[in-house]
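ok so for the tutorial part 2 we go from a plain amino acid sequence to predicted structure tokens. step 1 is just haveing the sequence, like this:
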Amino acid sequence: MTDAVEQAPARPWFNLLQVVASLLLAYALLMVGNALASTQTSLSLLADGVPVAMAGVIQSAYYGGFFLGGFACSGIVRDYGHHRAFAVLAATVCLVALAQSLLHGALLWLVSRFANGLAICGVFMVVESWLNACVSNAQRGQLFSLYMIISYLGASAGQWLLRLPFDQPGWPFIVVAMLFTLAIIPVTLTRQQPLPVTESAPGNLWRQALRTLLQLHRRAPLGWAGALVAGSFNSAFYAMMPVVLSQLHYSNTHVGDFMGLTLLAAPVLQWPMGKWADRGNRAELLSRSALAVLVLALILSQVLATWLLLPLTMLFVCIAFTFYGTLSGIVNDAMPPRRRVEANATLLMMYALGGTLGPVLCSLIMGWLGPAGYFVSAAMLSGAMLAAARVFGAARPLPHPLAF
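step 2 — the prediction. this is what the tokens look like for a chain of 404 residues:
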């Protein structure tokens, strides 16, 4: 097979949704469970008296596992296929959640978060490569925007589950295990087959990853560079925005409500952004989105103590959280189908690597500037995304101007 960029045929939208419905349902269940697991881990660690710094290290292990999952899990998908890989990885997260429900200890939970991140990376890789195999380039942005909408709605729903009257601290993790078990059912029963995977290329996982990264750099350099920035941006929001609110004297309940509302805003622009990307130049759309986020971040750094904080943060989030979907479209347009498993693995690895860096950068700037430092760091990251889009972007023009 040559390296020509092949694609699935375009389908009517009703037929396409029938094809991917079971996969998206499973993914929605996974996202709810993963969000609940992440937040409950932090709350349980603090309730057990674990120092905040140690809790941060334990949570950062998730991104370490996520990064290494890009090396380990692509081989599982290639050797055993999408269906079985999904089942194995979801079962792994079930076991991790059940272990956390029964056992406590900083070292054990550090290992648990690492394993969780590794398995979740594999799940994302399976879902993204499977979805991209089912869709044409003309529909890719719209389908991926639906995928991102489900991601953020699931993340928000996981936050609201914390309001359930759990009588025991381990019960939320049992709910997580139940959600991941439920997610296995629609995927294993679906009759839809992803594109067949080919045999692994010779060489160890590190060499394969390097080859894929070099190929990605030749075909879509904006993909890996943008994913690094997007990972830093998103992880900084999840890790440091609650700290900003705490420093602004929000109660724990108000912090949860604020985060839940902003995550509900995240899906709002996913579909229109996907349609705009499919109709024109994805890199140009990304640069305009980054410019809008940069301006909003600078404004937000000046209005922290006003009523404008919530509505402007919601607008900030609903634009910024479209970055990854646009980047995925850029990468999957450029890569041949037989390299999409590795391409999506590489994209997730760069996202995870950025995820380990974002909170560190943000916390350093906040130590200097206080709560406003979060939005200053966000402005820096969106400026980096704008620069990457301008330097690496394609030359194909948009059919008409876009305005925000």
